Amino acid sequence: MPLVPINVLLAENSxxxxxxxxxxxxxxxxxxxxxxALNGQQALDLIPSTKPxxxxxxxxxxxxxxxxxxxxxxxxxxxxxxxxxxxxxxKDTEMIARALQAGAVDVFPKPTTGLPSDYEKVKAALIxxxxxxxxxxxxxxxxxxxxxxxxxxxxxxxxxxxxxPATKHPTATNLTVSVGAIANPSDRLMTQFKVLAIxxxxxxxxxxxxxxxxxxxxxxxxxxxxxxxxxxxxxxLVNLLDSKCLLKVKIAQVGEFPQAGIIYFAPETQxxxxxxxxxxxxxLGAQARExxxxxxxxxxxxxxxxxxxxxxxxxxxxxxDGAEGLKAIFDxxxxxxxxxxxxxxxxxxxxEAIALGAAHYVLPLPDIAPFLLTQAQLERPKSPKxxxxx
Length: 390
What we know:
about 400 residues; alpha/beta; Rossmann fold; seven-stranded parallel beta sheet
């Protein structure tokens, strides 16, 4: 139990639902409701005085709805936001995607009956989500965030170059490459790597956006991703990414061969691996039931098939999934990257990978996509230095 309770601000336009939520949250010694609001504007006005650790909001409210409240909060008073709404049931993939895009960390469907007894049944799950969110680091998100728009001119002019600032990341210095000529397909023969694998958990949807939106339409290798996500939510995330990315985004299907120009996601209820021929297969891997889809299982299968021609990236997330998988890629000679602590929502998974010695590079989130472009298009340094956590 925490030394001090988690301060929660509730925004909900139904007085009945508001009373039920107050009662079940106040029944936990770990949570304290410090403010209630009947619409988004009231909630926004209460933040400076109540100083909530977590904000729980409905979506449909008068004066200011939950989506706009989320956008305003992330621009002015960044806090972890949990959307509690009838509009985030598993079938409502578009609304779920819009909530995550606005800056919400997670969503929690209201019981469909609305009965107090049914809220009591989900009490433990709701309080657990709030506890998790209280430990999440969030970042200010300007109301007009240029990162969320795809790069419409993916290939800079011939004289342009991609640079990683030497002052921040000495391990990635001198990795500056002129990319103007790479638009010629024959020049892709220079590519050493054949696949890019990325894994994430808590905070992953936002992290994936900042990487995948920056990949150009002629990115020369397939991208295979695994994201821990609640059942029913993956389709909305994939649809959102597909609408914004210059590459096609889809859920990997059994029997497919990974192809350049496509970003594949593991399904949400099964593990994704490659068979001995390099085709996608689904599995239920008993050794990895705690995390589904398992990032480690995906990374290990990619390491087995692609060896030193694969790149692995482990992003923000709670726990240790992906750490051993990234080490497998490292051990086969592939290139590995872990997101750094300062830019991670939760530094659990990257930290575990770094502790295993699995990361060649530890980079802030904004630097990962430019670095991947240099590595996908030119040969990497023969002896990359390791930026380890100290």
